[in-house]
Amino acid sequence: MDGTQARASVPSYLVWSIFNLLCCCLPLGVAAVVCSCRSENASGVGDMARAQEASRTAKILNIVGLVCGIILIIIVIVLQFVAAKH
Question: Coiled coil located at which positions (predicted)?
Answer without folding.
Answer: none
